[in-house]
UniProtKB/TrEMBL annotation:
This protein's UniProt keywords: NADP
Pfam assignment, any one: ADH_zinc_N
SMART domains (UniProt xref): PKS_ER
Keyword Ubl conjugation (UniProt): no
Name of the protein described by the UniProt record: NADP-dependent oxidoreductase
Species: Chitinophaga silvatica
GO molecular function: oxidoreductase activity
Domain of life: Bacteria
Domain Enoyl reductase (ER): residue ranges: 10-314
Length: 317
């Protein structure tokens, strides 16, 4: 089968011919139709989880998010059967049996579930990590209808989902963008205030619009200094969460705010909640780029340079 993999940590990923995985007890073999790309994918190949506790195998096939159809079920599997359409996070131990491949082996108890019935595999593959992260960020923030929320990094996968989910809850969203096309897209997703950070300073603009302060910040892009500086935009008791792990959690608490560094907890239950919203027509799937397995190395290089634009999905079958 074709798969994008590395032979050692920090190697440039390449398209390889590898054996189709053999199904194991309590696991399913998935014929992968599409895989969603996230920066975490290449961080895995850099060894971010190589702490001596998580087993890795090489060649290490990349990819966390995926969607496809169950090709074969292993002994003891009860939740899935051959022919079921599924989506979710394929990550498990050993690291290296990822979704950037024509076939993937995934434990039944991983964060996978039956795919939504009303969207394509490409759209389903874009949902898991970004969708669950946005969903859980908002749950952790605990904002209510009428509150004001700055989403910094709004045009990415997580930010797009968060904008739409927050707006649906009656939260007033301030979305950051870098161009007019994304400004229009954020408006369609429900953002009430759009700030092009290339045209005007973000913090100064927010402060001029909301001199009494805002209630929350979800940040997917800032460095430590910028994230810390933006805390001054919050009302006392406000919340600030970052997915880039640049927060000083103790300092946030000392300033009278809530929040800090945020890590997604993948689960089938979270996916099922998103699936319910998708099937009810309450969630738009932001797929901006569709590429082939052969184009993945170039897309990863762009992601490393923070030059990727929007949600990218690999079309495999």
């Amino acid at each position: 089968m074709k798969a994008v993999a590395v032979s050692k940590f920090k190697e440039i990923p390449t398209l390889m011919d590898l054996p189709i995985p053999t199904v194991r007890p309590h696991a399913v073999l998935i014929k992968v139709f599409a895989a969603g790309m996230n920066p975490f994918d290449w961080k895995l190949t850099d060894g971010i989880m190589d702490d001596g506790k998580m087993k890795h195998q090489f060649p290490l096939i990349m990819g966390v998010d995926g969607a496809g159809v169950v090709e074969e079920v292993g002994e003891g599997v009860t939740h899935f059967k051959k022919g079921d359409k599924v989506f979710g996070q394929f990550i498990h131990s050993p690291i290296g049996e990822g979704s950037y491949a024509e076939f993937a082996i995934v434990p039944e108890k991983a964060s996978i579930t039956h795919a939504p019935s009303n969207i394509s595999a490409a759209e389903a593959a874009a949902v898991p990590t970004a969708g669950m992260t946005a969903q859980q960020l908002l749950e952790t923030a605990g904002l209510k209808k009428g509150d004001v929320l700055l989403i910094n990094g709004a045009t990415g996968g997580v930010g797009s989902f968060a904008t739409e989910l927050a707006s649906a809850q009656g939260i007033k969203v301030i979305a950051t963008v870098s161009d007019e096309a994304n400004a229009e897209r954020m408006k369609r997703l429900g953002a009430e205030v759009i700030i092009n950070y290339k045209e005007k300073p973000l913090a100064e603009t927010v402060k001029s619009l909301f001199p009494q302060g805002i209630d929350g910040i979800l940040d997917m892009v800032s460095n430590a200094n910028d994230f810390s500086a933006n805390l001054a935009l919050l009302k006392k008791g406000g919340v600030a969460l970052t997915t880039t792990f640049v927060a000083d959690d103790a300092a946030i608490k000392d300033k009278g705010f809530r929040g800090g560094n945020f890590e997604t907890q993948g689960s089938a239950a979270s996916l099922d909640a998103l699936k319910k919203m998708i099937e009810a027509g309450k969630l738009t799937i932001p797929v901006e780029n569709r590429i082939t397995l052969a184009e993945v190395p170039e897309a990863i290089a762009l992601s490393r340079q923070a030059k990727g634009r929007g949600k990218t999905v690999i079309i495999i079958a």
